[in-house]
Automatic annotation (TrEMBL):
Coiled-coil stretches: none
Identification of the protein by name: ECF RNA polymerase sigma factor SigW
Naturally occurring in which organism (per UniProt): Novipirellula aureliae
Cited Pfam families: Sigma70_r2
Domain RNA polymerase sigma-70 region: 26-94
Amino acid sequence: MNDPSRIDADLISRIRGGDNDAWQSLIDRYEGRLLAFTQSRVRDRSSSEDIVQDAFVGFLISLPNYDYSRRLESYLFSICAYKLTDHLRREGRRPALQLHQRDSGSADDVAFVGSARMASSIARSVERKEIEHTAICDAIGEQIGRWKETGNYEKLKVIELLFVVGLSNKAVAEKIGLSEQRVANYKSDFQIRLKAIISRMGLDEAVFPELAN
């Protein structure tokens, strides 16, 4: 299977099925290109890595809505560009995005122009972060409530160890006595459910642009 589009489609299908190795393969496949693109604008390795990590999280959030007809590379660059925009705004720069003129998936598809940041832009950015935080908290609370009602305490224990304690899939599996694949499946299920809840909130596309296709 040498066709890039088929490789990407296979990776996405496996990730949706909770395949941890597929997720790592996707990161290995695109992380370098996204880092090169981001670092050429930010000039700071640590900040670039944070932006790219946020982009991958954004991709996971949007995964239930991913359109297979869209090139994965272009899609990832688009999400990364949004995350980079937020970073530049926080740093006091006003980026100008060019995302839809071409669909080559290249870093050249996105252009940033630095200038003074206006107060209204700062206010919008702060407001967006507050909406994002509230939406995520509400989604987590809703899903945890559902699992409590149905007695899915094993899932709750896994999610707590993964996201609150910060253990790896392997460490959680060993601690609870589950297979690593089962832990990965619970993790994937939780993420997909959160994305679905957030998608139903009807938020403006500017809040979670990675959810829009």
